Amino acid sequence: MVELRTRTQGKGILSGHVHAVPRVVRFLSVGAVASLLQLLLLYVIHLSGISKLLANFFAFEISTQVNFTLSYFITWYDRTPEKPTVRYVIERLMGFNGMAVSTLIINMSVFALMLLFFHFMIAGAVAILAAAAFNFFVSSRLIFKRRDEIPGHPSRGLGRGPF
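Predicted structure:
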């Protein structure tokens, strides 16, 4: 099986500084980066003449892939194996994108509703906030389970709390 290297043994900037930050702060920071990217893409894609709803969809999809990557390496790094297989990463990516379908429904519904009352950029920001709590819960409990919750995982007991 092919393996991917994701981190060094306790060395490097991420493991020394970023990973010392509480998970909820890392989650919010990664979410902020993905959200800002989504809003930037929403604006740029809409400028090309695409409808606001379709522009929001494309912006959401692109930012979701960036969110997964940052979540994997920053927010939930301690819940992944030291040497994950390609299969492991693909399973997490598929689970994250599956969750994103529900998040997309929340995001698009809130966005469409908020368009009735606010500028489309504000509607986009409110839609992002509405989906964030759902994203954290599903990521924490299903996509990036604690290592001790994965049956037969060789790194059982290494996950950090409280989430």
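Summary: Confidence is low (pLDDT under 50) at residues 1-11, 153-163.
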